[in-house]
Predict the structure.
Amino acid sequence: DNYFRSGEGFLCVFSITEDESFQATQEFREQILRVKNDENIPFLLVGNKGDLGEKRKVSLAEAQTRAQQWGVPYVETSAKTRENVDKVFFDLMREIRSRKIEDNYFRSGEGFLCVFSITEDESFQATQEFREQILRVKNDENIPFLLVGNKGDLGEKRKVSLAEAQTRAQQWGVPYVETSAKTRENVDKVFFDLMREIRSRKIEDN
């Protein structure tokens, strides 16, 4: 646990020729999450012994499905031929570096606009991860925060209902505003509203 606690990112390596080692990755993942308490920790699932394809016991599809369920990249390597060995280390380092940059940016922020497109359900789903990252870094559920649905001018292409977005905002205890960068509707409003919340928070803290 102490080893995991100090880690900033993890490679979860199994042998594609041994189903047992693949099954053990689940326990490894759960142990990491338990110790780190952070589902977004930089993490790669790595299938080694890619040079022994004729002895494969874990299919590519099976490994990719697990990686998708975890929301992490999957890479196959061969320690013998060195195929992709450098790649997995560079990929992990890139994720760690990117995470540090984001964390430093969030750490200095006094308030946040969480913007998604009302025409893209995927962008709406991504707001949950953004919110969790902010809370993890700031450790403050009352940080000034607005949920913003953009592209309000494209109502006929709406994929995220007004009720769905308002429900998420209510669950988080934050305001919800719809904007249009094209027509400028409510664009100034969200910035003024956020600045007002930040100012109000500073007065309360003082």
In short: The mean pLDDT is 91. Strands lie at 10-15, 43-48, 74-76, 112-117, 145-150, 176-178. The domain at 109-200 is CATH 3.40.50.300 (Rossmann fold).
